[in-house]
Amino acid sequence: MKFLSRSEEFILFAIWRLGELAYCVEIRKELRAVTRKNWSFGAIYVPLGRLEKRGLIKSRLGSPTPRRGGRSKRYYELTRYGLKALAEARLVHEAMWNGQPRIVSDESLS
Amino acid sequence: MTGDRKPPEFLSRWLLRVLPRSWGETGVGDFEEEFVEIAEAKGVLRAVGWYLLQILKCLPHFAWSTFYWRTVMLKNYFLIAVRDIRRHFFYTAIKVFGLAVGLACAILVLLFVQNEFSFDRFHENADRIYRLTHEIKAPSMEMHRAYVRGDLASQLPRDYSEVQAAVRFVIHRGYVIEFGERRLETNPLYVDPNFLDFFSFPLMSGDKSTALRDPQNAVLTEDFARKLFGDQDPVGRTISVYDQTNKYDLKVAGIAKNVPGNSHIQFEFLASLAHLQKRDSSYREDKSLLCLTYVRLADRADGPALEAKLPAFVGRNFRPQPGSDNRLHLQPLTSIHLHSGLSLELGKNSTPSVSYGLSLVVLIILLIASFNFINLSTAQAGRRAKEVGLRKTIGAARRQLVAQFLGEAFVLAGVALILSLFLSFLLLPFFNSLMDQQLQLDVLGNPLLCLGLIFIAVVVGFASGLYPAFVLSSFRPSESLRGELIGRRSGGFIVRKGLVVLQFAISLVLILGAFIIGRQFQYIRGKNLGFQNDRVFSLSILKDPGISQRRDLFERELKSVPGVLDIAFSSGSPGIYKGFPLKFAVAGRSEAESVEFNLQMIGYGFFDFFRIAVVQGRDFNQTIASDENSAVILNESAAKSLGNELAVGKVIRSEFFTDEKGGQVPMTVIGVVKDYHNGSLHEEIEPAVYQVHSWMHDIFVRLSPVHIPETLKAMEKKWRTLPTHIPFNYFSFDDLSESFIYAKDRRTGRIFEFASVIAVILSCLGIVGLMSFSVERRRKEIGIRKVLGAGSGNILALFLKDFTGLVLAANVIAWPVGYFIMRGWLEKFAYRTNMPLWMFLSSGIALLVVVSAAVCLQSFRAAQTDPVGTIRQE
Questions:
Q1: pLDDT class for B697, splitting at 50, 70, 90?
Q2: Average confidence (pLDDT) over B258-266
Q3: In which band, very low, low, confident or very high, does the pLDDT at B531 lie, cut at 50, 70 and 90?
Q4: How far apart are CA B213 and CA B230, in angstroms?
Q5: For testing the chain A interface, which of B11, B25, B30, B58 should be mutated: the one with the most A CBs within 10 Å?
Q6: Which residue of B has its CA nearest to A52?
Q7: Distance (Å) from the alpha carbon of B69 to chain A's nearest alpha carbon
Q8: Buried-exposed string B361-378: b where 16+ CB fall within 10 A, e elsewhere
Q9: How near does any CA of chain B get to the CA of A38, in Å?
Q10: Tens of pLDDT, residues B42-76
Q11: How far is A53 from chain B (nearest CA, A)?
C-alpha cells in the first residue's frame, strides 16, 4: 500500500480523534492545536478528497445550522482501511524512532 | 452589521461560484463558520477582508477549471460538428458555398467602396486642400464649373493669410508626343512649377521642387516613359509635342510614379504652364486663362469660413455686370470624386449612390445565402434532435446549446470566408471590367478590408445561425429521445416556407430588372434616332486644324479607298454631343421673349451624310459666302418655338455671334431640318440651332457593308501617307454612343444580370438541398405510395405541387415590387420601352421552369427507386 503523505496522516489522525464531530471546521481546529500552524481550507479539502477517493474515509451530510448560513456540514469518518493505514503509519514512526536519542526537548516544543 | 454576523449574501454567492465544484455548499458553510469566528474575535471588517482573500485565492483554480471544461466541451462540439458535416456533406456544401459566394461579392464590393471613399486621401494635408470653383449666373448661361480665372491663384494667398499655397493647371486632350519613331497620344497637364510639391505625386528620378521650374521641362510617368522610350533611360532626353498648330521640343526632367487609381487627377505627362502661356498668345495673360486651381490652407484654417469671405474677393476681382452673378466656392479635395460633378471636370466623377447600390445588391445576395443556411439547418433539425435531447438530459443548459449551434454557424461562416477569398480572386478581373476599375485584392496589406470582412462574416454567421440555434435547442428531451420529432414538424416549417418565397421573390425581381433593362437597350438600339449611323466610323481631328484647312485633299484621298461610301466633316456627333445652350433674342420680339437653343457647330454636308431631311428652306451651301458667318439652320422644335409660321428668313441674335469689333451679328434662318435625337434618349429632343464652322472636330466615314475590317486597314494605310501627325484611331459610332452616354445604364444592366444569375443559382441550390432532404425523409412514404399503385409521375407531381405554390406566391410579391422599381429606373429615360405583362409572365415561368427542373432532378431518383428496399429498411 502507498504511504500516506504527512498532511493525509495528520488529517486521518484528526478525524479519528474527533470521532462523531469530524467536519472540516473542527478538523482544522484540531490540526491547528496539534501542529501549531494555520491550515487553510484548501490544505484540508484537497487531501480529504484524495483520502475519500482512496476509500480511507467516507462522508455523510449533517443537518444545516444557522451559524453556517443554513448550510449543512459534511461529516467524515474513518473506514476500516483508513484505520489500518493510520495504525500502520504509527508503527512505521515507532519503528523508525526506536532506541534513538531525543533530538528535541519537550520544552523547545512549547 | 451589528449582531448579524454573516458574510454578505453576494459574497457567499461569489464564493460558491469560484469554489471547486466538489466542495460545493458545505464548503461555503465551512467558510461562513470561520467568518463568524473571526468576526466575533476581531470584528466584522477583518472577517470580510479574510473572506474576500479566500475568494481571491480560489480564482486561479477557478479560471483553470473553467478553461479546462470549456475546452473539453469545445472539443466535443467540434467532434460532433465534424461528424455531422461529414455525414451530410452535400447540405453543408450548399450552406457554405452560398455564404462563400455572398462573401466573395461582399469582398469585391468592399474593395470598390473602399476605393471610392479613399479618393485623393493619399495626398499629404489632403484635408487642408480645396479646389476653387466658379459659379456663374448670367442671362445667357448658368453654370458651375471647375475652372476659374488664372489670376485668382496668385491673388488669393495675397489677400488671405490662411491660404498657404495655390497651384494651377490645365489639361489638354489628345496631344501626340513623339520620340524617334514612336508616337503616343496622351492628355498632358500644363502645371505650375510647384505642382509636385503641392500634391503628393512622388518622383522616381528628378527633384520634385525643380523638375518643372524650367518651362522647357517635362515629367513623365513610369509607364508612359516605358512605352515611349522602351528600355532607354528617359531623363535628359528631348521629346516632341504636337500642338494644334506646331511642334515643339521639351526635355524630360523627371519620372513620376504612376498615378494611383484613386486620384481624380490623372496624368501621364506633365509640362509647364509657363511654356504653354509663352507659346500661345491666347493664354498669355493670366486673366484670360482658365485653370483648375487648388489651394492649401494653413493648419487650423477653416474652409467654410474662408469661403464665406469670398464674395468680397469676387467684388474686388470681377467686373460687375447687370443681371449676372459670380460666386467662388471652395470644394474639399477629398469630396471631389463623390460629390462634385461640375461642368468641365477633369474626368468622370462618381457618386456615392453607386456604392450604396452595390452594397444593397451584396446585402440581397447575402440574405439569400443566409436563408439557405437557415432553411437547411432547420429542415435537418430532426437529425440533431437526439443529440440535443441527450445533451439536455445530462445537464446542458439551453444557453450552452444555443452557443454550440451558433458556434457551428460561425465556423462554417469562417470556412466560407476562406473560400470566398479564392472566389473573389477569380472574380476580380470580371468585376474590374464590369465596373471599369483597376482594383487589386491585397488582403494582408489591407487591414481595414480584413476587419470589415471578419465583421461581415460574424454578422452573417450570427444572422444565419441564430434562428436554427433557437429551434434546435428548443427540443424537449422527452420527445426528441423517443424520436417523435423526426416524423412531425421539425421546427420552423412556416418560417422555412416564408424564406423560400422571399428568396424566389428577390430572384424574380432581379430577373425582371435584367429583362427590362435589356429590353430598354434593345429599344435604344432599334429606335429610329432620326439620323442614319449604320457603319459610320469617326476619327477625331480636333488636334490638327491643318486637316480642316485641307478638307478637299483628305476627302478625295479617303474616298479613293475602296469600300468608303461617304465622308463628312463636323464639329460634333449627332446623338452624343448636342451642343451648348445659348439664349437668343428674336428680331421683332421683346428682350423677355428670348429663346434658349442648343448651338451646334457642324460642317458642310452634315445633314446629307446623316440623312437628316431639310423640311423648309435649304441646307448650308459652301458656295454662298454668307452661309459661313451669318446663317443658321434650326430643327423643328426650335422652329416651333419661333412661332408656327415659316421660320425661314427670321433673324436671331446672341452675344455669342460677334464680328471682330465685338458687335453682334444678326443670324438669318435659312432652313429647318427634321427633329432628330441630338442628345441621349434620357432627354427629350431639344430645340437646336446649327451653324457651319471652319474648324472641324471629327471626320465621319460611312463604309459599305462588306469587308469592313479590310476597308479600315486600307484606310489606315492611306492615312499614313496624308499630311498629319494624328494617329489613325477610329471609333465605331455605336461604341461611341455606348461609351459616352449609356455606359452607366449598361453597367446597371450588367449588375442586374449578374445579381439575378447569382440569386437564382443560390435559391435553386437551396431548393435542391431542401428537396433532397424532403425526399430522404419521405422515402418510406414514396415506397408505400408506389406499392399502392402510384407511378413515377404521381410522385413527381407530389413534390412539384409543394414548390409550385411557393413560386406562385413569390410572383404575387415580386410583380408589384419589380414594377415599381423598374418604373423608377425607366423614368430616367425620356424615351422608354413599356413593361408588357408577358415579360412578367415569362420571368415567372422561367423561374418556375428552373425550380421544377431542380425539383424533378431530386425527386426523380426517389420516384424510380424500388419500393421494396425503402420499406424493408428499418
A1: confident
A2: 91
A3: confident
A4: 26
A5: B30
A6: B22
A7: 19
A8: bbebbbbbbbbbbbbbbb
A9: 13
A10: 888 888 888 888 888 888 888 888 888 878 888 88
A11: 12
Question: Is the reported ipTM for this assembly greater than 0.95?
Answer: no
- Interior angle at CA B349, CA B344 and CA B355, nearest 5: 165
Q: How far apart are CA B249 and CA B239, in angstroms?
A: 6
pLDDT attached to residue B220: 93
Q: Please indicate if any CB of chain A lies within 8 Å of the CB of B32.
A: yes
Chain B residues with CB under 8 Å of A42 CB are 57
Under DSSP, is residue B800 helix (H, G, I), strand (E, B) or coil?
helix
Whether residue B98 contacts residue B760, with contact meaning beta carbons closer than 8 Å, is answered with no
How many CB pairs lie under 8 A apart between chains A and B? 47
- Nearest residue of B to residue A60 by CA position? B26
Three cell numbers, residue B727? 494617329
The share of chain B scoring above pLDDT 90, in percent, equals: 18
The alpha-carbon gap from B396 to the nearest alpha carbon of chain A, in Å, equals 26
Identify all chain A residues contacting B8, using CB atoms and an 8 Å cutoff.
none
Min Cα separation B43/chain A (Å): 16
Beta strands at B688-692 and B595-602: parallel, antiparallel or unpaired: parallel
Q: Please judge whether B26 and A24 are an interchain contact, meaning their C-beta atoms are less than 8 angstroms apart.
A: yes
Q: What backbone phi and psi angles, to 5 degrees, belong to B719?
A: -55, -40
CA distance to B263, B341, B752, per residue, from B429 (Å):
21, 28, 18
Check A69 against B6: CB less than 8 A apart: yes
Q: Do the Cβ atoms of A69 and B29 come within 8 Å?
A: yes
Lowest mean pLDDT among B269-273, B508-512, B638-642: B638-642
Tell me how far apart the terminal alpha carbons of chain A are, to the nearest angstrom.
Answer: 35
Say which residues have a Cβ less than 8 Å from residue B344's Cβ, sequence separation at least 6.
B145, B146, B147
Task: Locate the chain B residue with the closest alpha carbon to A46.
Answer: B23
Contact B29 A45 (CB under 8 A): no
pLDDT score, position B440: 86
* Chain A touched by B65 (CB under 8 Å): no
Distance separating alpha carbons of residues B371 and B98, to the nearest angstrom: 9
| Residue located via cell numbers 479600315 | B712
Mean pLDDT (whole number) for B230-234: 88
Rounded average pLDDT over A18-36: 89
DSSP state of A23: B
B23 in contact with A at a CB cutoff of 8 Å?
yes
**B505: pLDDT strictly greater than 60:** yes
- The highest-confidence range among B240-254, B326-340, B729-743, B770-784, by mean pLDDT, is B326-340
Band of the pLDDT at B195, cuts 50, 70, 90?
very high
**What residue has cell string 472577517?**
B47
CA dihedral for B565, B571, B574, B575, sign (positive or negative): positive
Interface contact flag, B7 A24, Cβ < 8 Å: no
Distance separating alpha carbons of residues B35 and B29, to the nearest angstrom: 10
pLDDT at B651 over 90: no
**DSSP assignment letter at B597:** E
DSSP H or E segment with residue B691: strand B688-692
Tell me how far apart the 2 most distant CA atoms of chain A are, in Å: 52
- Identify the structural domains of chain A with CATH numbers, from first to last: 6-97 (1.10.10.10)
Q: Is residue B139 scored above 70 in pLDDT?
A: no
Q: Quick check: B762 and B368 in contact, CB under 8 A?
A: yes
Distance from C-alpha of A79 to C-alpha of A52, rounded to nearest angstrom: 9
pLDDT digits (tens, 9 = 90+) for B158-186: 999 899 999 999 988 878 898 888 888 88
Separation of alpha carbons A82 and B634, rounded Å = 120
CA distance B106 to B96: 15
pLDDT per residue as tens digits for the range B739-753: 767 777 888 888 888
Residue A93 corresponds to which cell in the numbers above?
A: 514512526
Of all residues in chain B, the one with the smallest CA distance to A23 is B30
